[in-house]
Structure formats: C-alpha cells, structure tokens
Amino acid sequence: MYAAVEHGPVLCSDSNILCLSWKGRVPKSEKEKPVCRRRYYEEGWLATGNGRGVVGVTFTSSHCRRDRSTPQRINFNLRGHNSEVVLVRWNEPYQKLATCDADGGIFVWIQYEGRWSVELVNDRGAQVSDFTWSHDGTQALISYRDGFVLVGSVSGQRHWSSEINLESQITCGIWTPDDQQVLFGTADGQVIVMDCHGRMLAHVLLHESDGVLGMSWNYPIFLVEDSSESDTDSDDYAPPQDGPAAYPIPVQNIKPLLTVSFTSGDISLMNNYDDLSPTVIRSGLKEVVAQWCTQGDLLAVAGMERQAQLGELANGPLLKSAMVKFYNVRGEHIFTLDTLVQRPIISICWGHRDSRLLMASGPALYVVRVEHRVSSLQLLCQQAIASTLREDKDVSKLALPPRLCSYLSTAFIPTIKPPIPDPNNMRDFVSYPSAGNERLHCTMKRTEDDPEVGGPCYTLYLEYLGGLVPILKGRRISKLRPEFVIMDPRTDSKSDEIYGNSLISTVIDSCNCSDSSDIELSDDWAAKKSPKISRASKSPKLPRISIEARKSPKLPRAAPEISRSPRLPMRKPSIGSPSLTRREFPFEDITQHNYLAQVTSNIWGTKFKIVGLAAFLPTNLGAVIYKTSLLHLQPRQMTIYLPEVRKISMDYINLPVFNPNVFSEDEDDLPGDAVWTD
C-alpha cells in the first residue's frame, strides 16, 4: 500500500478541531435508484466540531476532474452549542447528524431544502463520553462518564436506560455488528456487556493498569444496500491510471474483530470481548487514535512518537512528530506515514470508500490519499514530482506529454475545495464573480469603536470548516447616516506588485483601526499560507446599470475641504461623506487611502448606493432600496440593483471623474432595471 498527505497548503480553521465524521452523498439524479457504492462515495460531507462550539459541514469530493459540478453551498456553520463540540456522528441511513458538547448537550440536526435545523435536543447536564448509532441507523447509544447509559430511537423515543455503578468512568460505547449487544469501555481497563434490552451480561477485565481509550469493529459503520451495478457503469468512470488512488476491492469473509485501544498505546485485536488470546499491537505511540477503514482490511493508528525519532525543523528545535501507522487484520505492520505535524492528532476518519483519511490536529485539517494495492511506479513518480513542485501551474513547465501532465495535475486537485482566497489574489476574489455556481455565506462582526479612527469598524468573514476567515474590513464614516467605506485588501499601492502577506495580516493591516473582535485566530492559522481557492460564488449575469459619472462644478472647491470632514480620522486626509456634503473628490486622494468602495445612504436609511472607489471597478456597483408600508401592515420589500462587473485589463481602463452621487430625499427610483426583489 501507499499513503501520502495531499499536496497543497494546509487547511485550517480559526479554532481547534476536536472531532470528525464523514458520510457519502447521494446525487440528486440517483436518489430513486439503488445505491452504487462507487458513485455514492465519490462525493460526501465532512462534519467537524471545534472549540468555539460550532459544527462545520463541508463538501468533499474525490473526483480527479476539475469541471465536476458542486452544490451551490459547500459549507455550513451550525451554531447552537454553548461549549466546545467534542463529538460529531453522522447517521447515513437517515441522513442526520448528532453533535455533543462538553456540557452534555446533544443536538440532532436534519437538512431540509438546503437548510439545517435542530430536530432533537437532549441535555442531561452530565458529560457525554460517547454517542454511537446502530448499524441500521434506527437506534442511538449514549454513554455518560458518570455511568448512565441510554438507548433511544432515531426519532427521539427512549427505549431503555440504566445506571452502572462503577468506581471509574465510562470512556466509550459501541454496538456489536448484529446490534444485539452493547459494549462499554472504562477508564480502569474493563469492558461491560449488556444486551439490546438493557440486561447486564458480563464484566471483563482486559488490562489491569491501562484504561480503555476506544473500541471499534472492522465492520462497516452503516449497512447500505449496494446495487448490482458494477463500478465501471458510472458515467464518470476512469481507469486507475487516470487518478491518484484506486478504489479498494471489498474484503470478503472476514470475521469481525473487536479492536480495543489502551492509554499505553497498545491495541488488542479480539474475536470477541471474552477472547483469551488476543493479538496485541505495540504501536509505540502515545495519545493514539485508531479506526478501521470501511472495508475492514486496514487499521489506521495515529499518535505521537514516544522515542527520540526526532526531525529537525529548519528554524526551530528538535520536536516530536505525529505519525500514522497502518496494520492489517492479523496485526501486521504494513506502512508508516511520517508527518511534519507537531501537535497530537485528535481525530481521524475514513472517507470516499477508504481512498482518503482525514486527520485533525489543532486547528489544521490534513487529507491523506491512500492506495490499498501495491503502488505503481507511475504513482510513486507522480508523488515525487508533485512534492518538488510548488503549485499546479508549474506542471505545464515540464517537458512531458499532455497525458502525463494531466495525470500529474490530479495530485493537486484538492479533496476539500476551499472557498477562501489566495492572499496573492485577494482583490480579485472580492471584486469579481467566479466561474462556478457556488454561493459564499459570510458573517459580519463589529469591533469596538476607536475614537482615533472615527466610526466603528466591521469585519466580513467567510464561513469555512466551522470557523471564520476574514476577507474585508469596513468603517462607518457618518454619525447621522449608515454610510461606510470598504478597505482595499491589497495594501500595496503599486499595481504591478502582489503582496505576499498571510491572509490574516493582509486584511487586518488594510484597515487603520484596532481589531478587538472576539475572533482570535491561532498562530498556526496566521503562520501558514492560506490555501489556493477555486472561487466559489458566482453572481448571475445581470443587465448592467448604466449610470454615467457626471462632472460637478463643485469639484474644484472640494479638494481643500477634504481634511475638515469630522467623519474620518484627522491623522489622514478624509474623503468625507458625499451624502451630507454633496462633494466629489479627486481620484488621487481616494486611491492613496486604499479604499475599495463606499456605501452611501439617504437620511432615512432606506436607499443605499454602492460606489466603486478603486480604479479597476466601475463607479456604480449597485444599489439597495427598502420599502415599508404604513404602520408595517405589509411586509417590507427590498430591491437590489446589481450590475455585472467584469475584469478589464488596466491598459484599456478609462478613469472617469469620480462622482459618488447619492439619492435625494424624495427620489423614488434609480436608473436601470431592478434585477432581484425579495
């Protein structure tokens, strides 16, 4: 076999990722057909729980083609927990998601018409040690650290519960493959066995000095009926040489093995809980996390090195690294994947029919491509060449045949396509629509007011992997009207240079105001280069609004009055608020402040106009009109005017005299056509 970490920048969230769970996605065109496992597991959803109490649901794909369509929304941030989320568990047969937090709160989420909502809530007030769905998805097993265990239905009905009197805590709980018994592991090395009706069957001491960390079977987590359709019947079937990983062949006639991992790093492979001669794996790792692949032939064990097999970093001391070891059903060591991860691996999960292994370490998420069969020379050469290349665009520079270049480029196709921008292309990301049909969902947060810079500052964040990624900053410039300026994320004033700062520093430095937002990004996130982006939000092609910039006779006297505006800090020349002063400002004064756009408003706050301030943007970027009825007897109406913004070469752009004209107080309509009404 062969395993390698996916090439490209490391994916990160804004807080520590504590748990992972993956499920396959059924395409809409095949919901009424029998499930073909190969098609079913090419796409899926990864659920993550983080330290901020947010659950992330992110789309993943193992396609080796870039032109495959994706859902319109590829990331959801589910909020509702009041403490860190420690467990996430998919229910594939019923397409539900169970999440547990550190305070004992349990939520069951369900998706309907593209929206996630909470279907069930259970809060006993005690810490949950494990949550497991039965293999048919109809029942849930909940175990608490204080010895209370509960079995309920998928609809929320309680079947039975029991209080187990123990001197130690329950650490994990699982179902047997036939769903007729439940097993619980304890911190003092015991396994407690109960039947599906709650009757006690056995107490078995497995280890006198080590506690049980986790238990699992080399058996599919859920039983999904597979159709008789062969793998090659898929429309997008490609031979193994067209992709970096081949789909594993199902393992037949393997008796389920009970796998028990201990705090010492040892792992026992047992035929049953009462096996007197288990196979013991000495992993040599600490803080181990073990999980069988879906086919049941490969066990992944992740943990930190115990001995002094240390690697020296380029600019740091000798540190221990995390590694992943793979074992077969006989407990034989097959492969070791060395990583540069310096933090413990908290959670792992298999995905895409065991061709991917996802790992969480701190705020970082790693994707490992796994080849179950003997790796070909072509695959080894692909990985070796891809490791020496920095980006996908460097493949075209190699003197290789087109077919080999195409095969080599598949090593750079990410499993998780990040919607976050490349810092080197931040300006284009926020200014122009992308080629895809995905929608980006954002969150805006207000920072504390700073008298030195004028009004309050706001930061716009992209939702990603349960976290928030800052992309734009703005500041209010008027105390009477809701008017704002939006900062240009490109801080360098030279048009030919591309800034190389990280994503976080780029956005924060572009706004000359203090950022005291409650989003505190970790050092690991800021230190790494953000992943490259396949832009994920395309605006529909709409008729362009033709609002020509008009020259104003007030322009000559506007320049000397700029510095006297009370709405911007006095330490820098102010652009003022055109809605109040009715002035226009020279283009040179605007560009020196690195402003991207300005939002102007009437005195009532019902009509807004978005004006482009940067040279590469048109003057008119859109408008928003709110209409309310008398006494609010009718629902409010919002009309949005959006022109189509295209990227134009700077050599041919014509810089008109800037005119941020706003609405008069009695103005009812705007030039152009209304393109969307809510």
TrEMBL record:
| Keywords of the record | Cytoplasm, Repeat, WD repeat
Which Pfam families does the record match to this protein?
A: Beta-prop_WDR35_TULP_N (PF24797), SOCS_box (PF07525)
Give the top-rank taxon of the lineage listed in the UniProt record for this protein: Eukaryota
Mention any one GO cellular component term assigned to this protein in its UniProt record.
cytoplasm
| UniProt pathway | Protein modification; protein ubiquitination
Its GO biological process annotations read: protein ubiquitination
Q: Which InterPro entries match?
A: Beta-prop_IFT121_TULP_N, SOCS_box, Tubby-like_C, Tumour_necrosis_fac-like_dom, WD40/YVTN_repeat-like_dom_sf, WD40_repeat_dom_sf, WD40_rpt
Give all residue intervals belonging to the SOCS box domain: 373-414
- Primary localization: cytoplasm
UniProt KW Repeat keyword: yes
Give start and end residues of every WD repeat: 78-109
Residue ranges of the region described as Disordered: 552-575
Location in the cell: Cytoplasm
Q: What is this protein called?
A: TUB like protein 4
What gene codes for this chain?
TULP4
